[in-house]
Amino acid sequence: MSPAVGILRVGVYSAKLKLANECSYKIWPVLASGGGKTPLLAPALALQPGKSTTVSLPASSSGRLWGRTFCTFNSSIGRLSCLTGDCGSGLPECSWAGALPPVTIVQFELNGDDGLDWYVVRASRGYNLGIFVVPQGSSGGACMAAGCVSDVDGGCESETGGACNSTCFAFSDSKHCCTVSYGRPDTCKPSPYSLYSNSRCPWAYGYAYGDGKNGTRDFPCASGDYAVTFCPHPVR
């Protein structure tokens, strides 16, 4: 699965995704299917601290998962606004809208290339929550855990706006966004923030062409279920 993948394939099996909130505050997860299709989670689902929920994913589904924080839901007009992870549409389910940076995102594809599941965690659009993905009951492929277990917020530099914005979002130029003449692995180089993010999150992408432990941060796995933890405890 490449960094620019956008995907919806037809397959024969599904997977269960367990979402657990280990943050000290409530979060509102978003599970958006590829191509702007029907959202895969209840629109205004909120996970209290220490709680979890399990979602059954359709066969060969693909999409993105992230967490929204410090949200306010106006039930009279059905509008949701969040401090981080907001999609800017005001719609609880985000609909066609993506997440506004800074945000940590899980990207996944079930039954993709070579008949394997593929998943990756990205901090290249900034960081708002630690997220860790662990395969459950799978065999074949790398089947490795992926994500970010460290608290990156404490090391963000003032140049990126005081929050964990990516340098692309902070500076909005082709050099930092890896576009135009910088849109190739040989010209897209990590910034100091990207290097810091990579060092704190070795199982996630800190910038567009970053790689990680074992030379990759895109992980393949045979069909199975997955546990996703928000604000995971550091791996020791």
Automatic annotation (TrEMBL):
Keywords: Disulfide bond
SUPFAM superfamilies given in the database record: Osmotin, thaumatin-like protein
Keyword Disulfide bond: yes
Gene3D superfamilies linked: Thaumatin
Disulfide bonds: C23-C231, C71-C82, C87-C94, C143-C221, C148-C201, C156-C164, C168-C177, C178-C188
Pfam families documented for this protein: Thaumatin (PF00314)
Stated name of the protein: Thaumatin-like protein
Source organism (scientific name): Escallonia rubra
